[in-house]
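Input record, target 12 of the design panel.
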């Protein structure tokens, strides 16, 4: 059974529509991860109220940072899906590369803020000497 060019164009339009919906859904999921992570972290911070000094604040910052890192990873995935599946042009690839570079830099700075080291540096042991076991 042969399909006409019109039928193929219609099928392609339907597929593009669903891929666009999927990309937007992944975007919304990434934003929800960030927002719910901040709400959950803030709730946890105030449950331990009054905070026990710097330890509570540091834990709060770490939890928010982890939510941001996970949300950014999901947002990068959504951008990749939408760019590669829908608009594969040199311009869209350039925009995607810029977005991925910015979000990667943000993730690296979050890791530095949370763990006190760059992502490519080895994890330090609690005594500060060498690698952790």
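The sequence produced for target 12 reads:
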């Amino acid at each position: 059974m042969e399909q006409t060019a019109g039928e193929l164009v219609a099928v392609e339009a339907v597929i593009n529509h669903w891929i666009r919906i999927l990309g937007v859904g992944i975007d919304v999921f990434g934003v929800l991860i960030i927002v719910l992570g901040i709400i959950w972290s803030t709730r946890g911070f105030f449950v331990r109220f009054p905070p026990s000094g710097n330890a509570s604040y540091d834990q709060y910052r770490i939890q928010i940072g982890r939510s941001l890192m996970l949300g950014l990873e999901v947002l990068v995935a959504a951008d990749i899906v939408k760019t590669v599946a829908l608009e594969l042009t040199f311009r869209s690839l350039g925009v995607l590369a810029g977005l991925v570079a910015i979000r990667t830099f943000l993730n690296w700075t979050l890791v530095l803020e949370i763990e006190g080291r760059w992502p490519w540096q080895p994890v330090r042991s609690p005594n500060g000497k060498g690698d952790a076991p």
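The first helix runs from residue 5 to 47.
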